[in-house]
Amino acid sequence: MAEQYTIQQVANITEVSAHTLRYYERIGLLTIRRASNGHRRYTDSDIGWIRFIMLLRETDMPLTEIATFMQLEQDGQTTVDKRLHMLEDHRHDLIQHIHKLNGFLNKLDAKIDYYSHVTTELCDCVTAEVKATSEGA
User: Fold this and answer.
1) Buried b (16+ CB within 10 A) or exposed e, 107-135
2) Fewest C-beta atoms under 10 Å: which of 26, 37, 52, 56?
3) Whole-prediction pTM value?
């Protein structure tokens, strides 16, 4: 029989709070089996899906889209093309976001470069001014 985990064990393993895990189950992102006493029992497969959900969250996929994806997953093999299309669209959006961030980074680097030279020039001017003042005194 596959190993089963409590919600607290999964929270520790995935670094996702028990509260968030319950919320994800409540909104339909996860379908977790229950023991006879009603306690949640997670499997290695559940942990894999939690990690995938967190990857999608970290890349800014909205929870509604993740929920759609997870429902398609539960619907089975006939939805593979739809899931693939969703992931390709998300990948495209992520690449666009990376390009945008790289543009911001380049502008920021240019400004840092500018201020690095201005600071050096200001320091040289102040040094020259101090030197001229002390020589004239």
Assistant:
1) eeeeeeeeeeeeeeeeeeeeeeeeeeeee
2) 37
3) 0.77
